Amino acid sequence: MLRTFVGLHLRDLGGWIRVAALLDLLATAGVSNSSTRSAVSRLKGKGLLIPDKREAVAGYRLDSAAVSGLERGDRRIFTYRGQRDDEPWCLVSYSLPEVDRSKRVQLRRTLMGLGFGAVTDGLWIAPGHLRAEVEDALVGLDVRDRATIFITQTPLTAEPFAQAAAKWWQLDTLAARHTEFLRRYEHAAPLSENSAPLPENSAPKSSLEPREAFVLWLHCVDEWKAIPYVDPGLPPSALPSDWPGMRSVELFAQLRRTQAEPARAHVREISSAES
């Protein structure tokens, strides 16, 4: 929850927040002061937060080195990219010997975290728009010379492609995550199949007070943020007809339109208040 708060709000505050304000805001969201302090200690150890006293006021500063990572997370979390049926796929083939087992395990975890599906032990697949991300990951793990990337059209499988995709990505498990997100938050922004889309520049207002919007939005993003990393945005041909993913994507976008700005306003108000 603290990491989610940092990603959502600390840059908007200029990268610094009073300790008292941080404790107050997280307590509003149901996080005890002791839990927040423990979480702060962990994030300090990871280089995300730095103690920074300003005019005798204790606070925390966002490490500038962490900004690029937060920006990458923003792109994945807030910009859902669905693949069309006529777009290419990205396949990654690699071979690492037993002596590099730890690196092999790390590579598998990284590929899963990027949204790749496992075709076989050493062959992974994802929508083509993830090519740049996997290139960066392979270089970062120092295994680029052990891997080959193929950009190809839809693979020809012995069974219907959707059946193969269901195994490669464990779509039943992923669908359950989307369904749970809908169950938790659909009441806050009901979706209607007959409702007209909002104009691009519209700014619908939240029915909640800023404090309530802050709590809802923080919990919403905290639960949502992992989903885009395991759901790479598969095309319709790879998904079952009753796929709940697009409904939850639309719900998250609607909650962002209505709750993000009042949530930011509440954070600014509490952060700027006298200690």
Task: Tell me what you see in this structure.
- The structure is a single chain.
- The chain has 275 residues and is α+β, with helices and mostly antiparallel strands.
- The chain has 3 domains: 2-71, Winged helix-like DNA-binding domain superfamily/Winged helix DNA-binding domain (Arc Repressor Mutant, subunit A); 89-153, Alpha-Beta Plaits (2-Layer Sandwich); 170-272.
- The protein is 50% helix and 11% strand.
- The chain has 11 helices and 7 strands.
- It has helices spanning 2-10, 19-28, 33-45, 67-78, 101-114, 131-140, 161-168, 171-185, 210-224, 227-230, 245-272, and strands spanning 16-18, 49-51, 59-62, 89-94, 117-120, 123-127, 147-152.
- It has a 4-stranded antiparallel beta sheet, with helices on both faces. The chain has a 3-stranded antiparallel beta sheet with strand order 1-3-2.
- Strand 2 (49-51) and strand 3 form a beta hairpin.
- Helix 9 packs across helix 11.
- Mean pLDDT is 91; it is low at 192-198.
